[in-house]
């Protein structure tokens, strides 16, 4: 992922109704067959990622109590135009991690409108012509980007009751593990190359 795709990806995970742990989303960022050169490099990159995550989360959370929007990272091309396609790709990848939960908003005719600009930018250059929206003019693109930015706050608000309900679940309730147990000294499944106990296992809930 480039920084724009990462920004959209994190925004979707933060806006969504479910808590997604680093061990699940970090492999989406690294890609396959990735490894760090050293523990120091891994620690530095993870700290930068978490700092950016916290920036998005704080900006969106503040919008619950006061007029505010999160301004996404949009990279400009050689022509000086920010298309927003990579950001939309990242957001849709974030949705893909919890598609079933996001269907609540996708199927909500009254509140699902904020997803439309994101989906139009995501599918703009899709290999399947039937998935592509009509040609987007520069003026329309600017409107889509503005709608995408404003809509992000609405999406965050929409799922806030679900996130709050999840946060209210007592911590002592056991969670069931879907996969095999990971030893604390084994390599972390997120692909960082660090031991599980020093990476995702440091903050993960106990699974029974």
Keywords for this entry:
mainly alpha, globular, disordered C terminus, 7 helices
Mean pLDDT: 86
Please give the number of β-strands. 0
Rg from alpha-carbon coordinates = 18 Å
**Assembly of the depicted chains:** single chain
**Main structural class:** mainly alpha
Using the alpha-carbon principal axes, give the shape.
globular
Cα end-to-end separation = 33 Å
What share of residues is helical? 40-55%
**Secondary-structure element order, N to C:** HHHHHHH
Number of helices: 7
Largest sheet: none
Would you identify the regions where 5 or more consecutive residues have pLDDT less than 50? 203-208
- Strand fraction: under 5%
Quick take:
This protein is an all-alpha fold and 208 residues long. It has helices at residues 3-15, 22-30, 39-62, 85-97, 99-106, 115-122, 138-167.
Can you characterise this structure?
The model is unreliable at 203-208 (pLDDT under 50). The relative contact order is 0.18. This protein is globular. The protein has seven helices and no strands. 50% of the residues lie in helices and 0% in strands. By secondary structure, it is mostly helical.
